[in-house]
Amino acid sequence: MYLGEYRYSLDQKGRLVLPAKLRGKKITSFVLTRGLDRCLFLYPLDEWKGLEKKIRELPMAKREARSFLRLLVSGAVESRLDRQGRLLVTKSLAQYARIEKEVVIIGALNRIEIWAKKSWEEYLEKSERSFEEIAQKLVDLGI
Questions:
Q1: CATH number at residue 40
Q2: Which helix (H) or strand (E) holds 89?
Q3: Distance in angstroms between the alpha carbons of the first and the last residue of the chain
Q4: Of 5, 51, 55, 104, which is the most buried if we count CB atoms within 10 A?
Q5: Residue 62 is assigned to a structural domain of this protein
Q6: How far, in whole angstroms, is CA 51 from its chain's centroid?
Q7: How many CB atoms lie within 10 A of CB 45?
């Protein structure tokens, strides 16, 4: 399970150190891809395989399912951590997430999200205003 918020920077080669607390599971193989809200999703390989199974079950006759599959999978890259615990963020994924240098890495239970610092701060500001409202809607849904 991935938890917490961490602030790091990409190095000149586009590599990002994964925080030690998020590396604690001895997992070295990941899939990095486009996420929702202009962030990047980083899945351990076993979690990705579970997601891939669910994606394969989507009804490809539906436009939304095809679009989701294309956007999620076309940007995906398998990645391994190097000896220093770094992973490479490709230029295309960095551009998608508007990452220049400073990033915020957050644990999101079964995955890790990588955000441009500015984008995260904007998202957090907007979301904090409606946090109680969102929580109430989820409670009403029985979650």
A1: 3.40.1550.20
A2: none
A3: 19
A4: 104
A5: yes
A6: 13
A7: 14
